[in-house]
Amino acid sequence: MKRIYVGSLALVLIAAMSAIAASGASAAFTKGANWVKAGTKNGFTGAFWPLGNLVLKPQLYSTGITVTCTNSTSKGQNGGNGSMTVSKAQITFTGCKGEASEKTCEVSSSGTGSTITTELLKGELGLVAKAEATSEVGILFSSETSETNGFATLQGTCLPVSPTKVTGKIAAEATPVNLSALTGGLVLNSGLTGGSQQIKKISPSLPPATVEVPALKAFGGLAAAQMQAETITFEEATEVHAS
Description:
single chain; 1 helix; 18 strands; eight-stranded antiparallel β-barrel; mainly beta; about 5% helix
């Protein structure tokens, strides 16, 4: 079973807004990456392929803490033709269970059941080194309200801290680029130790020109993330245009 480690959450989320496609619309592009599309439908939905498994694994605890979910779905909106943003992105994980100190429990964001729903997330297209993303375009995800609000809240009777938040920022590669289509994908891979993400630096397209270093935290320490691609379906043909 493929698994996604800590940053996952974000990852996941991230995945939800991966890139993709457009039709013959025109816009005044700046150097960077923009959404391109002809119409005004900006919604998207996503699902992990082939499985939506999630495993959160913070590096702080030597005894190990894992939160495993069996499936996930996502939704959100891109900013429309010529924009560089994603908004109202959210991922819902189901079948979530935790394990810590040889104890197991159901884990949720609400405190009951086994469903984790992330906070609303925002995203921003940016440029990435080719060595870190083949498409050279990524999406930087963070909380729509504040970084301290985090990506999601985790609650479970077996967790060392409950409730606890997964916080920080995460970046995922957007694919394909410069191609109009109804579907696309988001890819994020990283090492399983040290909390290092594959995309270590991303330069957002929105001014001011800065370089962001994405990192996620959970249970008081850095969280590593490993995740497979997510398939995204747009309401209408959409493109990630890179220049």
